[in-house]
Amino acid sequence: MIAWKQSLPEYEWLIHQVWYLEVPEGEVIDPKPHLIPNPRAHLLFTPPEQGYSYDTGDTKLAGKGCHLLTANEHLLLLEDTAPIKRIGITFRPEGLYAMSHGLLRHPKLQQLTNANGLIGSTRPLMSAFNKGYGS
Fold this sequence. Notes:
single chain; Jelly Rolls; four-stranded antiparallel beta sheet; 3 helices; globular
């Protein structure tokens, strides 16, 4: 398993950390991880064919590819199977609210939007995943 996380000093007002997780083919994930209740949302970038599954005990949320895990108040069982390649952006608790309620006028976000469209395109990142970078 390869895992790392890093803060972004100039963006700490919005982003708590950026992280990466890679689990190679054949590696067993046991025990399955539980995600504790968390006020922070995570934007997760994964290859389009990679599945995900979060189980609260009452509800199972499953799908494939990139997704947004919003703030939650339940213990979540994460049902992953290798291989996994996942980049995550963990927002500060108020991060999604700030972006959806007009704080996109912050100078740092204005620089990103002016240069790349709204917070840039995920196309280069997904292209890298599809070519197998990070392996």
